[in-house]
Structures
1.
Amino acid sequence: MWGIDTMDGLMTEELPNFDLSGRTALVTGAARGLGRAAALALAAAGANIVLGVRDQGSASDLADEIRTTGRDVAVATMDVTDLDQSLAAIDQALEEMTTIDILVNNAGGSIPGKAIDANPQDFDEIIGWNVKSSFFISQHIARHMISTGRGGNIINVSSQAALVALPGRTGLLSGESRREPLDPLSCRRMGPSRNSRQCRLPDIHRDPGH
C-alpha cells in the first residue's frame, strides 16, 4: 500500500486509475498505518468510506479529512476480537450508508515471541484476532453483497510473514499470515455470486503508534 498519511500526500503519489464513485468501502483497522492509507486511497478513487476502528475518537481527524473530498463517511466502532459487537457495528453502518461494496480486512497483528514459548491462550488470541474475525466479518459482508445483487470485493491484508520467517515473530504467531489460505477456500464455499476475494501481502513497514 502507498506510504501516505494525509490526503495531500496521497495526491502526490501515482495511483491506479479507477473510479469507485457510488461505491462504499469498509476498512477495518483504519485509524493508522495501512488501514489509514487504504481509506484515503479508496476515498481518492471516489468511494464513500466506513472507518472500522476500536476507538471512535481515533478516527475523527481522518473522517474530517475524507469529508473535505465530498465523500460520505461513517465510523464503525468495532473490536474485531468481539464478533457480536463488530457485526452490530457493521449493521449500524449499513443503516447509515445503505450498502457496503468493498471490504478491506486490515485489522490484526501478531504476538512477538517464539513458537517454542507459545501457550494455548496466545494461539487462541492470535487466531481469533486475525483468522476468525476476518472469516466471519467477510461472511457477514458477503451475505449483504449477495442480497443486494451488486456483488462486491473483499480484500484480506495478510503479511509476508506468511512466506518468510521473521526474527522474533514465528509463522504461527504472525497471525495475519493465516488469512492467506482463506481466500480461495471461502470464494468457493460462500457459493456462486458476483463477489471476488483477494489477499495482499505487504512488506514490513513502520506503523505509527507502534
Note: The longest strand covers residues 48-53.
2.
Amino acid sequence: MRINIYVNKHFFLTGIKMDEIEIKELTPPEYKEWDLLVEETQHSTPFHTSGWLNIYRDVLSRDLRIYGCFRNSEFVEGCPVFVKKFKGAMKIGSSTPNMTDYCGPLIKESSSSKWRNKVKENYDVLSSLREVFCRQG
C-alpha cells in the first residue's frame, strides 16, 4: 500500500515549500533500507534491526509490518508494527513487542539548523504516519 500526503499546513506561516510525504509498507526485500535507517538514526537500538524484528514476529506469532515515510523520495522515518488478530475480526497493532521496550518509530535527524524547523518536520512525518494508521482502522 502506498499513500501520498501533501504537507502544506504551515506554508503561509513559515514560507517553507510544500513537501510530499509518501507512506508505504516495506516489503521484505526493502528491509535493507530499514536497516540502513537504523544505522543512521541516533536513537536506534539493535532491537530495531529487521533481524530482531523477525525474531519477535516468529516468537510472538504476530504479523510484522514496517512502514516507511519518505519526504521528497528520501527515507526519513519508519515504524515497525506488530499486528495480532484479536477475537476473530479485530486486529491490534503495537510498535513495541512484549519482549522489549526498545522499539518503535525512528526518525532521521533533520538537516535544518533551526530547532523550530526540526520539530515541524518531525511533526509532519509523524502526523502523516498516524493518519495512515487511522485510515487502516
Note: The longest helix spans residues 115-136.
3.
Amino acid sequence: MPPRRPIDPSKYHNEKEEPKLVIPDVRITPHIRIREGLWEHIAQGRLTPHDVCVYLTLHRHAKWGTGICVTSAASIAGNWGGQLKLNTVQVSLGRLRENGYIKYPEGTGKRGVYPVLIGACQRV
C-alpha cells in the first residue's frame, strides 16, 4: 500500500473569510418567535382564544426582519380551515389593534390585503 499524502487544510477551509450573518426577510425554519410575556397576558384574560389564534397566524406569516404581515381578515380566517369565521377574525383584529398588539391602516371599505405591523414582534 502506498503511503498516504498529508491533507492540506487550506484546500478545505479558507480562514480569511468570516461567515456573514444573514437575517432573512421570510421565515426559513418551522418555528415562530413569540414573546414570553404573551403567556402572562393570556393567563390574565387580556387575550381571548380567538385573539391568540389571530395573533399567532400574523406571526406565522410576518417577515422576521420587519414584523410586518401583509394579509386580510379573510386570509387569516382561511388559514384556520373554516374553524374561525370572518367576523370573529375582524373583531379579534380590532381588539388586538385597540390593545396595542398590532397596528394597521384604517380600512377603506374595499376588500384587499393590507400591512399589519406586529407591535410586540420579537425581531431577530
Note: The mean pLDDT is 81.
